Amino acid sequence: MPIESGSCASARQAKQKRKSHSLSIRRTNSSEQERAGLQRDMLEGQDSKLPSSVRNTLLELFGQIEREFENLYIENLELRREIDTLNERLAGDGQTIDGAELSKGQLKTKASHSTSQLSQKLKTTYKASTSKIVSSFKTTTSRAICQLVKEYVGHRDGIWDVSVAKTQPVVLGTASADHTALLWSIETGKCLVKYVGHVGSVNSIKFHPTEQVALTASGDQTAHIWRYIVQLPTPQPTADCNQVTGEDEVEFSDKDEPDGDGDGSSDCPTVRAPLTSLKSHQGVVIAADWLVGGKQAVTASWDRTANLYDVETSELVHSLTGHDQELTHCCTHPTQRLVVTSSRDTTFRLWDFRDPSIHSVNVFQGHTDTVTSAVFTVGDNVVSGSDDRTVKVWDLKNMRSPIATIRTDSAVNRINVCVGQRIIALPHDNRQVRLFDMSGVRLARLPRSNRQGHRRMVCCSAWCEDHPICNLFTCGFDRQAIGWNINIPALLQEK
């Protein structure tokens, strides 16, 4: 009668253990419903001031936690058994390989390597499971703190830029690839003015600091300055957009996008010609902004230059050269004559016009891909975002290295900073919008589901800190802009 080897016997024992253990897993899963019902009965028997819907949500979350840790515990037992089996098998092999014994050091090294691999597998499984649990809590928190208030639908193509007027009446402006710029009532979502003066994609829009005048940049190689007159409509009661059903992450198809033909933009007042047209670029004008005071404007172009213009005369004052590739964005300081330009050459540059006789430039190198935008904050800080999936916070007095780095999972588009609260809004290629503080701590992610949020790439964000209804706006290539109400005190308290 043949004698079974030690390695075969240990393998058979491990197989029997796994078989009996799988039976226990099935018994555990079959009793989950009974356990959940028992927990719900116990919860209902306790005195609580929480609403029943909140209590049920908490019960479901804690049930998920229990199941996750139970699965982790079971997997841990399985891995420990596999480690023991491997150690026994290695010990047996150490006595028979090539008729000679392996040294203790070799055996220990081999067993240690196998054990470390299994340990790493256990750590990875634990990290993935706990991440799901933490994500459940963050999703619930984000929905309570970040609420969708209004959707602005009317463009027939993607929206590249969004901006908020700095004078009364406060209106929302959007710039679109459909060759138009639209002004909206923030409260009602109604289109107030349509600008149709460009013959190319409108890539950016900025409002004059003191007048009802807008500055738009276009793919037709020009920037236009045009005046608008708006009369805000009376706000009407709207349905609550914040009740979300289903999962937080849902895939969308093109047929789910808003239909631009069903909006009211076609019957709103139209501005057809600019007050001034700025013409000096030899390529697409990708962005434009007002210098402090509103008497000068700066433009950024794919011809690798930025131009500074006198608004009253339309004359070119300075041509800012030095970037090696196309420019992607430009931004001006709110109180000083400073301009920052970003480029596909992985750098952004700070241009100083405070001294009329000296126009200094500083180059910031820290990204490994296109710098999609760089914006000023309070004090001497600049925040830059890039296609390399990072956002960096810089001190203008120390250009060598950033003071904070935010690493994300998707390319970052045109960022915006809530100056008063120092909160950065990050729009992503993957349709997400995340909020971080200036030290790089993540605060929240705007909710996105099958009923709310952007369905395609989010191109831009803009804060309006003092507005009572919407204090953050986003726009995307799904042809809509969205107004959000961010409970900033609660957001900072969660941090």
UniProtKB/TrEMBL annotation:
Keyword annotations from UniProtKB, A to Z: Cytoplasm, Nucleus, Repeat, WD repeat
Swiss-Prot/TrEMBL WD repeat ranges:
152-194, 195-226, 278-319, 320-361, 364-404
| Biased composition annotated in UniProt, kind: Acidic residues | 246-264
List every stretch annotated Disordered: 1-36, 245-269
Q: Which InterPro entries match?
A: WD40/YVTN_repeat-like_dom_sf, WD40_PAC1, WD40_repeat_CS, WD40_repeat_dom_sf, WD40_rpt
What segments bear the compositional bias annotation Polar residues? 22-31
Q: Spell out the Pfam families in the cross-references.
A: WD40
In the UniProt record, does the keyword Repeat occur? yes
The record, for Gene3D superfamilies, names: YVTN repeat-like/Quinoprotein amine dehydrogenase
The cellular location(s) given in this protein's UniProt record come to:
Cytoplasm; Nucleus
| Highest taxon of source | Eukaryota
Please tell me whether the keyword Repeat is annotated for this protein: yes
Q: Name one GO cellular component term.
A: cytoplasm
Which SMART domains does this one have? WD40 (SM00320)
- Name this protein carries in UniProt: WD repeat-containing protein 37
What is the source species? Lepidothrix coronata
